[in-house]
Amino acid sequence: MICENFIEEIIEKELSEGKVSAVQTRFPPEPNGYLHIGHAKSLCLNFGVAKKFGGKCNLFFDDTNPSKEKTEYVDAIKEDIKWLGFEWAEIHYASDYFDVIYSLAEKLILDGKAFVCDLSGDEIRALRGTLTEPGKESPYRNRTVEENLKLFREMRDGKYADGEKVLRAKIDMKSPNINMRDPVIYRVLHAEHHRTGNKWCIYPMYDFAHPICDSMQKVTHSLCTLEFEDHRPLYNWTVENTGVEHKPRQIEFARLNVTNLVMSKRYLKKLVEESSVDGWSDPRMPTLTGLRNRGVPSDALKKFCDEIGVAKSNSEIEISYLEHFIRDNLNQNAERAMAVVEPLKVVIDNFDASEEVEVEINPNKPELGKRNVLFTKEIYIEQSDFSLNPPPKYFRLKPDGVVRLKGAYIVKYENAVLNDDGSVKEVHVSIVENSKSGNDTSGVKCKGTIHWVSAESFVPCEIRKYDYLLKDAEYQGQDFSERINENSRTIYQGVCEKYIDSVETGSCFQMLRTGYYKKMVDGEKIILSEIVSLKDSFKK
Ligand code: ATP
Ligand code: MG
Questions:
Q1: What is the phi/psi pair of residue 223, to 5°?
Q2: CA of 225 to the centre of ligand 1 (A)
Q3: Contacting residues for 210 by C-beta, under 8 A, at least 6 apart
Q4: Domain limits of the chain?
Q5: How much distance in Å is there from the Cα of 76 to the middle of ligand 1?
Q6: Per-residue confidence band for 471, with pLDDT thresholds at 50, 70 and 90
Q7: Could you identify the atom of ligand 1 that is nearest to the CA of residue 228?
Q8: Domain 21-253 -> CATH class
Q9: CATH 2.60.120.260 fits 339-451, yes or no
Q10: Above 70 in pLDDT, residue 264?
């Protein structure tokens, strides 16, 4: 078996030594927002490892913080995971285990390993010490077992207000690891939970709940990001001291960070709440629902996650690398079509009929054949494809020049009609004899091919192009709100082939010479929404 990363190596070794038999992982989101690209990496890793070793992966909702969690997020997370094509074995919620977690907390109290503390959050912090100084013990640390049990039950029964009392593990205030200095494991919180309603007014802390839930689900490898490395001793302490039968192992890996993207639910939520974007599924959002709405194929995202690998130290990946996989996928799979941004009318003086010309559906899939496109006397080209004063090496339409119209003919410039303000109103050209695409015997040398849309058979469309939500990497370190790109969406008016009118909403195209676009609609209006540009700026 070829191991793809250090986690697989660890697991393979444990399997061969007989330390584990059936591999089980879990993907553990907190339902406090929508999933983003970083979560895709965690998903690929957890599901990937389980699959590789013939094990299973659960979906586990870490819902121990009722004030921030919602059923809306639970549903969205399930949707996103399905979109990526992963199937969880079982679905569990931390809240399913609240009774077990509670009884294990009582067990710690009975064993003299936990105590109820009346210090406030600030007081606890003040006594916690620093990396160089040990902490000081709480004056409540030596309460009797009976007193602790009574107080803890009173906490559960709603006798105390939020923050009035907490339950703390009794570990070691001198530990070099601050997380081990009598960490809080339960707090009072009078908040309605999206699943348990008002049953509880105390909730376990993540560090206490997570290992217990892993154990209950029989997770063998609890994969999490590097910031939890310092929490691993507490994870292990909890597993040992609660006496749970099944003992999972925590392994940490590096978070995925991508240039120009915010990768934190908290910040993404802020963007949504401040209306910097049109909700969680705005095509500019790095959320999975945003990518899906943008038209990014889920396979491209998975391939990206696989290629970047799993590391032990944090780093930042160029966004162009992600785009490279999206473009590559669409180049293979997307149909070709033509759309014109900022149209300029072109009249073909020596052509009065109309005729069907053929354009390849996808040159990478010749078996799909060709599609007929109506070619007419009047067509639209992009304003930028004509210039009265062309710069050197301008191989588009220009005075005294020729250019090929994609799939049709070579045309020769005749004259331009100007508006009063000097701008170009329309351009007249003529077809070069015997220059039909695929059957060109004209002998005319023509360096440029441009795309076009018939002015007699088209639909108007709105073309949306996107820039990154966050300004460049050079702004790194600045607060993210200072890095917001105010011009991340530009709307153009254009025209596209009538064919686009007939295809399903959501279809993705390579608009020839323009980029990859997804068809969307807004009432009667057709929108072509950019997925990714044509040009690959990624350098391997
Ligand atoms: P956020 O800060 O965006 O809320 P989180 O880590 O709090 O992220 P969770 O819902 O707790 O989000 O994450 C579920 C799983 O996804 C965790 O195992 C977490 O470590 C992992 N994860 C989250 N962000 C990333 C990332 N950028 N790269 C890799 N894994 C991630
Ligand atoms: Mg979180």
A1: -90, 130
A2: 7
A3: 28, 62, 94, 222, 235
A4: 21-253, 339-451
A5: 15
A6: confident
A7: 20
A8: alpha beta
A9: no
A10: yes
